[in-house]
Amino acid sequence: MDTAYNKDMAAPDQSENLTKGKAFDLLPAGYVLQKGGRRGRIFFANDTAERFLGRPDIPLLHTGIFDHILPRDAARVDAALTNAVTSGKVVRLKDVRMTGAQGQLRFINMVLAPADQTPAKPVKAVAGVGASVQIVIVDRSEEKRREDKLFFLSCTDPLTGAQNRRSFVRFVDDVDQSLAGISAALIILDIDHFKKVNDTHGHDAGDEVLKVLVQRCEKILAWQAMQSIDDTMPAAMLARLGGEEFAVLAPGVNEEQAMELAETLRETVAAEPIDAGDRKLSVTISLGVAVRWLGNVDVDNWMQAADVALYQAKQTGRNRTCMADDGDCDPAALPEGHRISRGKHRP
C-alpha cells in the first residue's frame, strides 16, 4: 500500500494535517512524537529533529528517543516522560546528553508533554503501544561548551593548569559534607629554594619548574585513581594555593597511605632534573601531611596542621615529608613569614 500523501487528492482533514506537519518543519527546534515509554518508537519527527538525530544507516522512525540518549541520562528522561504522561503537565530537562547524527556528543534542553493531537506527516507510522508524548529538543551544545570553558578558567591556575585555591576550597567542603566518617589526607607541598631559582635563572625558568611539577604530580594522582578499587571515591585533587605552594586532598586514605603518597610525589619530582630553557634544574619539594576524619572538620585547623608539618620538614633538612601530630594545631607555632598567607581557608 502506498503511504505517500497526494496533496491534490487528500481529504480536507488530511490536507489540514499535512499543512500542520509542514509548519512543524519550520521550527528551529527538534520536535518528535513518541508512542510508548522507554521502549517506544518515534512516529513523527520534523525536519530539524531528523537533521539532528537521523543517521544514514537507521531511519529515525525506526528508533526511539532513548536510542539517542546516553545511558547515564536515560533514567531521568524516563522519569520525566512518565511524569508528563501521568500528570498531563509539561516537564523540562536541562543538559540531557545525546548522540547527534554523526555520533557526536550533544547537550540538549528537552521539553516533554502529553500529545493531545498528532500532526500528520507523509511518512509511514511505526506501531507502538501506550500513551503518546511530544518532545521538543533544543540543542545547546555550543552554549554548554562556552559555559564549561568559563567554568574551567574560573577553577584553574592559568600558569600551571592545576586547580586554583577557590576550586580546592570548594572540593574540600564538598568532600567533607559527602564523605562523613571517611578519613582523608591533606598534603601541603612547597618547592625548596624556589626564590633562588627565580633570582638565579629568571622567572621564565621558575614558571617552567612550576608547570613541570604539576605535570609530574598529576601523573602520580592519576595513577593512584586508576589503582583505586572504590569507584565511588573522588580522586585526589592537586591545587596551586599561591606562589610555589601547592595542596593535595586525597579522600579515603589513612596515615600510612598518605605518607606513601606524599613520598611518591616527593621522589617523582626529584627523580629527574627539569628542563628550563638552556639549563637543567634539580628540584626538590618538602611536604606536610595531616589526616582527618571527614564530617564537619575544622578546615582552617586542618590546613594549619599540614602547614606546621611542612615547616617541620623544611626545618629538618628539606626534601622530606613530615606528618602532623594528632589534635589541634596552634598557628602561633609557625614563624610569621611561614604562616599560610591566605589566613582563613575561604578565598
Automatic annotation (TrEMBL):
Main enzyme class: transferase
EC number: 2.7.7.65
Catalysis performed (reactions): 2 GTP = 3',3'-c-di-GMP + 2 diphosphate
Top-rank lineage group of the source organism: Bacteria
PROSITE patterns: GGDEF, PAS
MF GO annotations: diguanylate cyclase activity
Pfam families hit by this protein: GGDEF
Domain GGDEF positions: 182-326
Domain PAS residues, every copy: 40-88
Protein name: diguanylate cyclase
